[in-house]
Amino acid sequence: MLDVRKLRLLRDLADRGTIAAVAAAHNYTPSAVSQQLAALEREAGTALLARTGRGVTLTAAGTVLAAHAEEVLAALERATAALAATRTALSGPLRIGAFPTAMRTLLPAALVALAGEHPALDLTVDELDPALVPPRLRDGTLDVALVHDYDLVPIAPDPALDTAPLLDETMYLAATRPLDLAQCREEPWILAGPGTLCHTMTLRACEAAGFLPRARHHADDFVTVLTLVAAGQGVAVVPELALRPPAPPPGVVLTPLATRRRTRFAYRSGAGSHPSIAEFIATVRSVAATGLPAPTIR
Question: Which regions span the lipid bilayer (predicted)?
Answer without folding.
Answer: none
